[in-house]
Amino acid sequence: MRRSRNYDLGKDGIWFLVLSLAIPTALAQAVNVLYAIVDRMFIGHIAVYGDIALAGVGVAAPIATFLSSFATLIGMGGAPIMAMHEGHGDHATAQKILTTGFYLLIAASAVLTPLFFILRDPLLMAFGASSTTLPYASEYLGWYILGTPFALLATGLNSFIINQGQSKKGMISVLAGACMNIVLDPVFIFAFGLGVKGAAIATVISQICSASICIAALRTGNTEIRLRFRGFLPKQVKRIIKFGLSSFIIISTDSLLLIILNAMLQKYGGPDMGDILISCATIVQSYHILVTYPMGGMTAGCQGLVSYNYGAGFSDRVRKSIRDLQLLVTGYTAVMLILTVIGSSLFASLFTSDAQILARASRYMLIYECMIIPLSFQYINVDMMTALGQIRISLPLSLTRKVTFLIASVTLPIFFGAEAAFFSEGISDILSCVIGTVLMRTQLDPILARREKEGLRI
């Protein structure tokens, strides 16, 4: 059994491993949020047109996130498979899985970059931009799309680093890029007078930095599974996509649902309130990703731990890993709920000084985040089932929450007005929590029993 440079996933204490893998990854994702929200903070405070530009970036942001979700498809699809093979003692195949993932990220970039660059304006108009916000949305998204190859490599390769137990290296790559973005944003936006375009350019430069660090980390001698640039496995492509599909659906449909939410707010808010409500939704979503990205980092950081021990046949360690992770994540969401109640107005003030937007965004934030504790169970259920290779369970669980959000965000405004759309998140969170927890409790033991009886099927 191979030992990672930092931790032994098959022997070290579970609680120690959960903390060691989850917390650095959560911090990395918290810093990663800065990629998204720092741009919006600076843009919202641009003199004269800041609030309108904020609404434009709010329309563009879900499309940018949708592009990045393809990195999740490949990274979180290939990395658990890599970890399973490593845990099973098949180091050569684990290394080739990494190489295959790298080339899939390159191929995805080559297809997505020109396609979305050409279609960006029609997409923006269809998904909530008005004639007033379109110029800002198009300018921001156009420059962001040009950096798609670096965004995909930075996010996708980070999963392969983390799933080797190298969570600190993963954190460094994200931290370096985010810090660079914080420094460059005010320089490009205000000092160079580039406005919205400057925010996007700063983000692209920061992503180049993160991608370079990830590649360097996977090429160095102190990384157990190294990137070799040869050993592509065509037969593993389908399996990688299958493993990553549920995580991809979580991220990509989150983006699509936000696009629908923006469209509904624009439609039912009308010409007087549409752009204002989208500005509020941009602030609310900025806070939501501040909550959910670190939570997703915790679960993603521990996927390699669960996959490794499942591959090694250590069922008790799998159960304890999931249980300890649930305690950590639920405690985190409880703290975030308290912070939401006492700090929503302060957070909203980081994005705007407009009194109407500030008051509305603070109220909508409380509504949107009211069920974040049940949401922690949904994240555990989906990501741990993915780590065990149980796509037949994790994929429907992902879809349950998305479909519920879709139905609620479309129907509530029809009957109760545009503002009612903000209740969609809480409704979908509680329903998916109940369904997912029942499935986890009834299916985990049979899955582990089959592993012990029939051996590993990767």
Mean pLDDT: 90
Show unreliable segments: 1-5
- Number of H- or I-type helical stretches: 14
Number of strands: 0
Order of helices and strands: HHHHHHHHHHHHHH
* Envelope shape: globular
Q: Report helical residue fraction.
A: over 70%
Regarding quaternary structure, what we see is single chain
Domain count? 1
Characterization of the model:
- The structure is a single chain.
- This protein has helices at about 15-45, 50-85, 90-125, 135-145, 150-160, 165-190, 195-220, 235-300, 305-310, 315-350, 355-370, 370-385, 390-415, 425-455.
- Helices cover about 85% and strands about 0% of the residues.
- The chain is globular.
- By secondary structure, it is mainly α.
- Helix 1 packs antiparallel against helix 2 and helix 3 (about 90-125) packs antiparallel against helix 4 (about 135-145).
Layout of helices and strands:
Elements: H1 14-44, H2 50-87, H3 91-126, H4 134-146, H5 148-162, H6 167-191, H7 195-219, H8 237-301, H9 303-312, H10 315-349, H11 355-368, H12 372-387, H13 391-416, H14 424-454
Helix pairs in contact: 1-2, 1-6, 1-7, 1-8, 1-10, 2-3, 2-4, 2-5, 2-8, 2-9, 3-4, 3-5, 4-7, 5-6, 5-7, 6-7, 8-10, 8-11, 8-12, 8-13, 9-10, 9-12, 10-11, 10-12, 12-13, 12-14, 13-14
Task: Quickly describe the structure.
This protein is mainly α and 458 residues long. It has helices at residues 14-44, 50-87, 91-126, 134-146, 148-162, 167-191, 195-219, 237-301, 303-312, 315-349, 355-368, 372-387, 391-416, 424-454.
